[in-house]
Amino acid sequence: MNSASKKAILVVSFGTSYENTRKVTIDAIERDIADAFPACPTYRAWTSKMIISKLKKRDGIIINTVKEAMEQMLRDGITDVVVQPTHVINGIENDQMKADALSFKDQFASIVFGNPLLTTENDNQAVVKAVADEFQDMDSMTALVLMGHGTEHYSNTVYAALAYRFQDMGHKNIFLGTVEAYPALDSLLRAADTFKPKKIILAPFMIVAGDHAQNDLAGDDPDSWMNLLSSGGYEVTPVLKGLGEYPEIRQILVDHVQAAMNASV
54-77: per-residue pLDDT in tens? Predict the structure, then answer.
């Protein structure tokens, strides 16, 4: 980079309307990235226009879309942008985020992208380790059931691959499913029945413990995973902690920023 160039990091999240989980997940990720790269200003953008609109209306909080953040960086004299998503997979949100950022490619000297959380085999191993470490005090007769989001996008296969990897890396009592795709809860129930746990810990496999965690996972509705598992005779404890709260998960995203920076040199 020449002396006139100015690099910045844009951290892109789906977003959440739940302030408590935002503070300990998205805010914490952004803070860790800012601390790791003090020479680069850090910007925020969210991809959910519905959540952005809700926060503006309810709380008077203004969050930029990706395009608005790119425009802000142009005004601030930024020349080179590293875009780091906090998305779990390379799905629809990530594709749209890239398209929005790249619509500015002629206005910046460079735009590079860090990988979402689950991109390489090394990422998958690191995430399995991070989750297993987080729940290392769990006894062998307790199962951990993780709720991912799921997508119609072809990248959804990552969830089934990761579910297998938990088992393959020796974590026979950790199961991963999704709310909106495969593996669904019925697949998990069959796997859990084979394991025959005495208790089940239920946790979100999402960056934030937002709407899905509060409602689909631990809500009062009879169709929530907690109630469906409880009605199956299991003693269920929900742990509403987003992946962004795990220091090891945040470190993976910091490493992805570093890799993107290395690639842009």
Answer: 999 999 999 999 999 999 999 999
Give catalytic residues, as residue numbers: 149
In a domain, 1, yes or no: no
Q: Does 144 share its domain with 178?
A: yes
Query: Which regions in the chain score pLDDT beneath 50?
Result: 1-2
Its pTM stands at 0.93
Backbone φ and ψ of 111, nearest 5°: -130, 120
Q: Please check whether residues 53 and 21 belong to one and the same domain.
A: yes
Domain that includes residue 36, residue range: 7-117+246-264
Distance, CA of 110 to CA of 123 (rounded, Å): 25
Helices (H), 25-146: 26-36, 49-59, 66-75, 92-102, 121-134
Residues 129 and 224 in one domain: yes
DSSP state string for 207-250: SS--HIIIIIIT-SSTTSHHHHHHHTT-EEEE----GGG-HHHH
Q: Does 48 reside within a domain?
A: yes
Rounded Cα–Cα distance for residues 16 and 127 (Å): 22
